[in-house]
DNA sequence: GAGCACTGC
């Protein structure tokens, strides 16, 4: 205590200690010289007390004295806008179960709020810990790293993170950053999230599928656990919706710290946004002061095209208008990491000393909207489009569609220009269009997705009444119905929509339900090892590369792996070859394969293998030289994908079974010979309808493996149906015949058995008679003898 | 004869 009193730097620590003593009901806590936390009473701290604890001589979490680095960071933390609101925040959290917090970029909410909650709830004393969720893995990881530094602890000890494939926590952990999907998984085995005293949901405005489910779950849990606190953090001004959803929760608004961005609209609508974007970029280069440019486009092809045009025309204006040199960099997620690094390179130097400055132009997809931040961007060009996922429940297909962005997304894009200094945003649409045509918010993902996997998870979470599920935006009944239907056909739900043992097993796997069903069914066919590999390969982005300049070479490389049964077996070949290569990265390069995808497939396979072992699913392989080796694998695939079958009609077109959609085999398929029956993994909707990743099957397998689905009476008419009907009829006849034969044989057996028994009896009786007679005669002879 | 916006368990 004396130390603190003598230290002018800790002026208000003194008061805090006294207050703490008062809360402790007068009990002496003078050993509090070592831990400033002694002054804190769980659930009743003040901002002053918290600040005092942060300025104490020793770290309340570790008992160690604070490092100089800690003190330096602390000074900066005090400057964050959110720190000015600490007392307000504490007041709200003390008096409410839910708090909604809106904080713009740079407010410090993600790093500071969880720390305030830790100091307030003192998880190390209370035994329950605090979680803060993020939609993305990298964010969870990097924020945890930062907060560990801020609290002067080692990452993975008192502060940790938990993401797929990486658990970086310990028994000491009091604050855990995790992806929202990870927390959802955890809830599946601990429905009340009983380990936690507070959950902080960050980036809630992004409305990812998992965040939406988690919000609903927290609402449910909070109504049953009065002790848990929930903080929902968001970046939008659409806070009323969040407040209302969380039972009229109070709102705290924290200003951000960004620079102003001037917005420019086009006076007239642009017909060709690509052309217009390029023109605008070159015009900025020719007329605006130094500063890098970010252009938002929709996809890889468009971006590469734009880069080509920019390079060509850039050279022209550099010559004619005496502009500085340009560095043009594409950016999209499937770009190899070393190419992605280029976005962080500096703009080129002027060609001559004192000449016009160079400029960097980044041409990017949505990655640059949320996931990646590029420093030095001053100008943003926003054509107003992005590719968005849409789900059509009628044909059960998710597809990507180029669509206008929302006003919220447009604001987000503009904001990217003001991170380091005041910037400008050029919108390639009219102001009128912005106000009238763009929707306010992007539709939440839950309204645009296939919910098969999510519905299963909800069932596992103990939520049975899905129709009345309390979601911020309720999903369409038809989408829900499709999900239930799928799970029912897979055998995951019974007739009353309750989870079956198979459903429990499927839900353990962090993959599509069909893939999980495939793995579980593989036990029956003795090929779980191979099916685990295929499932992993199907869960990662396409492994086959096909660079524009080397298409033929790439196709030839792929042909080396081709398997005549189809694309699934081809993937299996690739995986096996990958595993046996000595230098995987070089090997991938040589074979036109995406190393990143294969590495990830290997990771996923290992995870799936662990889940399988945990659920007593044996790891089996058939004898490779057996002729049944591949057919058995294909049967296991069919057990998962019997709802995605296409039949080649006599006119040479494939028709999907039951939905009767005309589809083409994707040109990337190895199945050039067009087998009559195929299962497919994916339905791709572009200019035409394609089925991608297909494997040949036998129609009789469908009736054998999925008899409940192939109840042909409710199928619409088509050739495939007629063939299946014939097979079913033949099966029925064969079965009848077999049964008739069986009955006949049984009868015969019975008769002959009876006959035999009869004869035996006769024989026995005869023998007995004979014996008796003999005995009698013997006896008589004996008696005669004796009489003599 | 063609694509894979972006996350995530």
UniProtKB/TrEMBL annotation:
Range of residues in the leader sequence: none
CDD domains linked: DEXHc_DHX15, SF2_C_RHA
Entry GO MF terms: ATP binding; hydrolase activity; RNA binding; RNA helicase activity
Catalytic reaction annotation: ATP + H2O = ADP + phosphate + H(+)
Enzyme class: hydrolase
Disordered as annotated region, ranges: 735-788
Gene Ontology annotations of biological process type: mRNA processing; RNA splicing
Residue span, Helicase ATP-binding domain: 90-255
Comp. bias regions, Basic residues: 766-788
Positions of the Helicase C-terminal domain: 277-462
Xref: Pfam families: DEAD, HA2_C, Helicase_C, OB_NTP_bind, WHD_HA2
PROSITE patterns with a match to the protein in the record: DEAH_ATP_HELICASE, HELICASE_ATP_BIND_1, HELICASE_CTER
Keywords carried by this UniProt record: ATP-binding, Helicase, Hydrolase, mRNA processing, mRNA splicing, Nucleotide-binding
EC numbers on record: 3.6.4.13
Basic and acidic residues bias spans: 748-765
GO cellular component: U2-type spliceosomal complex
Coiled coil (residue ranges): none
UniProt family annotation: Belongs to the DEAD box helicase family. DEAH subfamily. DDX15/PRP43 sub-subfamily.
PANTHER family: ATP-DEPENDENT RNA HELICASE, ATP-DEPENDENT RNA HELICASE DHX15 HOMOLOG
Protein name: RNA helicase
């Amino acid at each position: 205590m004396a130390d603190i009193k003598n230290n002018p730097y800790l002026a208000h620590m003194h008061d805090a200690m006294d207050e703490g003593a008062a809360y402790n009901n007068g009990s002496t806590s003078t050993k509090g010289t070592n831990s400033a936390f002694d002054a804190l009473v769980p659930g009743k701290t003040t901002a002053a007390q918290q600040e005092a604890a942060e300025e104490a001589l020793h770290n309340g979490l570790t008992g160690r004295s604070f490092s100089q680095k800690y003190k330096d960071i602390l000074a900066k933390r005090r400057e964050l806008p959110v720190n000015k609101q600490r007392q307000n925040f504490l007041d709200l959290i003390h008096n409410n179960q839910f708090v909604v917090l809106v904080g713009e970029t740079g407010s410090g909410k993600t790093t500071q709020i969880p720390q305030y909650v830790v100091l307030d709830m003192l998880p190390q004393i209370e035994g329950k810990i605090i979680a803060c969720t993020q939609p993305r893995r990298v964010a969870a990881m990097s924020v945890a790293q930062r907060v560990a530094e801020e609290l002067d602890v080692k990452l993975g000890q008192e502060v940790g993170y938990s993401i797929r494939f990486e658990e970086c926590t310990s028994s000491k952990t009091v604050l855990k950053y995790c992806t929202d999907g990870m927390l959802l998984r955890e809830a599946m085995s601990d429905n009340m999230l009983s380990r936690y005293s507070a959950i902080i949901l960050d980036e809630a405005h992004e409305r990812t599928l998992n965040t939406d489910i988690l919000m609903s779950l927290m609402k449910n849990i909070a109504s049953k656990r009065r002790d848990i606190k929930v903080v929902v953090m968001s970046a939008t001004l659409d806070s009323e919706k969040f407040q209302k959803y969380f039972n009229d929760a109070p709102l705290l608004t924290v200003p951000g710290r960004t620079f102003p961005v001037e917005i420019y609209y086009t006076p007239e609508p642009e017909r060709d946004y690509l052309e217009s974007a390029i023109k605008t970029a070159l015009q900025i280069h020719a007329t605006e002061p130094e500063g890098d440019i970010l252009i938002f486009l929709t996809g890889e092809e468009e971006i590469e095209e734009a880069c080509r045009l920019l390079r060509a025309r850039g050279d022209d204006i550099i010559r004619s208008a005496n502009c500085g040199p340009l560095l043009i960099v594409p950016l999209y997620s499937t770009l190899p990491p070393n190419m992605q690094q280029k976005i962080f390179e500096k703009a080129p130097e002027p060609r001559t000393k004192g000449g016009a400055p160079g400029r960097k132009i980044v041409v990017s997809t949505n990655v640059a909207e949320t996931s990646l931040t590029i420093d030095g961007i001053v100008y943003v060009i926003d054509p107003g489009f992005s590719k968005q996922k849409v789900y059509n429940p009628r044909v059960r297909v998710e597809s990507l569609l180029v669509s206008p962005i929302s006003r919220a997304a447009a604001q987000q894009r503009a904001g990217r220009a003001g991170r380091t200094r005041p910037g400008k945003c050029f919108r390639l649409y009219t102001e009128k269009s912005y106000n009238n045509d763009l929707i306010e918010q992007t539709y939440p993902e839950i309204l645009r997705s296939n919910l098969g996997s999510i519905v299963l998870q909800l069932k596992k979470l103990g939520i049975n009444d899905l129709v009345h599920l309390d979601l911020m935006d309720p999903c369409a009944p038809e989408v829900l119905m499709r999900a239930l239907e799928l799970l029912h056909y897979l055998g995951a739900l019974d007739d009353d929509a309750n989870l079956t043992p198979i459903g429990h097993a499927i839900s353990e796997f962090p993959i599509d339900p069909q893939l999980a069903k495939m793995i579980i069914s593989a036990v029956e066919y003795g090929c779980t090892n191979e099916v685990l590999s295929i499932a992993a390969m199907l869960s990662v982005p396409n492994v086959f590369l096909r660079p524009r300049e080397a298409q033929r070479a790439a196709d030839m490389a792929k042909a080396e792996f081709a398997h005549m049964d189809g694309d699934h077996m081809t993937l299996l070949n690739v995986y096996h070859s990958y595993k046996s290569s000595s230098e995987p990265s070089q090997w991938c390069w040589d074979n036109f394969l995406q190393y990143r995808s294969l590495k990830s497939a290997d990771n996923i396979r290992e995870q799936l293998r662990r889940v399988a072992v945990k659920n007593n699913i044996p790891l089996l392989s058939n004898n490779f030289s057996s002729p049944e080796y591949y057919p058995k694998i294909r049967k296991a695939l069919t057990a998962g994908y019997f709802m995605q079958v296409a039949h080649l009609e006599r006119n040479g077109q494939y028709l999907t079974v039951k939905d009767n959609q005309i589809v083409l085999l994707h040109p990337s398929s190895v199945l050039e010979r067009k087998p009559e029956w195929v299962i497919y993994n994916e339905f791709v909707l572009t200019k035409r309808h394609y089925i991608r990743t297909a494997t040949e099957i036998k129609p009789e397998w469908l009736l054998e493996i999925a008899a409940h689905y192939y109840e042909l009476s409710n199928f619409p008419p088509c050739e495939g149906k007629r063939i299946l009907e014939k097979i079913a009829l033949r099966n029925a006849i064969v079965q009848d015949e077999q049964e008739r034969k069986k009955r006949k044989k049984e009868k015969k057996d019975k008769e002959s058995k009876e006959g035999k028994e009869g004869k035996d009896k006769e024989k026995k009786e005869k023998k007995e008679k004979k014996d008796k007679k003999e005995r009698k005669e013997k006896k008589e002879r004996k008696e005669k003898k004796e009489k003599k």
